[in-house]
Structure formats: structure tokens, C-alpha cells
Amino acid sequence: MSRPHMLAPAQAYALWAASYPAHAHNPVMHAEERAMLELMPESLYGQAVVDAGCGSGRYMLHALRRGAACVTGVDLSPEMLERADAELSVERHGVPVELLQGSVTALPVADAWADLTVCGLVVGHVEDLHASLAELHRITRPGGRLLCSDVHPIGHALGWVRDFKSGDERYAVQHTQHLYSHWHAACATLGWQIERVLEPMLDPADIPVGARFDRMALEVPVALVFQLRRQP
To answer: Are 58 and 33 in contact (CB under 8 A)?
Structure first.
């Protein structure tokens, strides 16, 4: 199979948005989402939630279903924000929801605004992990938490890519490998306390019959998921 055309995130998601659902839609995303939801509080009653890199809105939907008082989604792609707006329309139920265009390194959100910040499978699209975690720290209130995930660095080493089809072409999104040591160093510098780290594995039940994939994916973790607390 030929290698997919590699695109910058803005280019890739402009093409991918039309077919990108607001739920986990591949085995890696299922594994990552199970871990993220394990860390997300069952009740978000009274809390302000920001989803940085919200895409089509899957974690915004979970926040609304868990009772968040207000939810803000930020994404680089206007096409993905349009998709999120459509996906969220039936779940708002009078809860204030705001969708804004912006980068995870330049979020259009006030300082210390979020009780909970979520950033799912986004930071790998940014070369500078420290800059991303600094901006996520800025918008999270002291004592608030960040749930942040990325494709596991093992996957990068094995040559995995985040690919998709648009028309008859196959594309992939540019991705930077961030090692655990990079996370640890950035968190120590910025004042993030690492509370929990999960490394979810694939569930064979999520793999479609006849799917072509790297069998090594069943032997290694596929995502790196952090629960971080902004120190007071």
C-alpha cells in the first residue's frame, strides 16, 4: 500500500471534517476515549469545561451529558467547528455552548476560566509540547484539572500515522512524537501536578473483521493519557 499524502493539520481537517463523526471511530480512539472517560468526573455539575482542539465535539458531548454548566470548544479548523455545531445542536438543552477558532498554543479563552480542560489527541499536532501545556495551564483555574491525551510515542516509533480517505486519495496528519520525559519536564516547569497516567491498550473487539493493521498494536499501549492538576 502506498504511503498517504502527509498534510498539515489545518489542511487535513478541512478535508476530513465532512466524514469525521463526534464519537470514537477507530480502535485507537476507542482505547483513548475509554481512558479519558475513566478520568473524567461522572458529574460536572456547575463546572465550566473547555475542550481545546474539540474537533467535531465528542468530548463536549460527554461534558454536556455529565452536567457541565457551560462548555467552550476551540479548534483550528473552521470546517470541524461547523461539524461540531451540527453535532451539538440536539444536546445543548439550554446550556451555554461556545465554539471558537484558535490554536492550542493560542486559545481565545480567559485566564483561569476552566474548571476542567480537555485536550484529546491534539498536542501531537503541535511541535512544541511546552507551549501547548503552558496555554492549557493559563486557561485552567488554580486547582482545576486537565485531561490530555496523545497517540503513544511507541506508535510513532513503529511508523503509525493518523490517516483517512477523502475521495479516492489517502491522507495523513502531521504528528510530532512527545516522549513521557518531555511531558514530565514541561509539567515540572509549568506547575502541573501529574496525578494519573494511563496507557490504554487496544481491545481486539474494536477491530473490524478483516481489517488490515499492524499486529504489534495488540502488544503495546496505543495512547498516553494524563490527568494533570494546576497547582494553586
So the answer is: yes
Per-residue pLDDT tens, the chain, 232 aa: give them: 567 889 999 999 999 998 898 999 888 999 999 999 999 999 999 999 999 999 999 999 999 999 999 999 999 999 999 999 999 988 888 899 999 999 999 999 999 999 999 999 999 999 999 999 999 999 999 999 999 999 999 988 887 788 888 888 888 899 999 999 999 999 999 999 999 999 999 888 877 776 666 677 778 899 999 999 999 8
Class of 5-221 in CATH: alpha beta
Q: How many CB atoms lie within 10 A of CB 229?
A: 18
Sign of CA dihedral 180, 181, 182, 185: positive
How far is residue 108's CA from residue 232's CA, in Å, rounded to a whole number? 22
DSSP state of 207: S
Strand partners, 49: 71, 116
Q: Cβ atoms within 10 A of the Cβ of 147, count?
A: 23
Altogether, the residues listed in the chain come to a count of 232
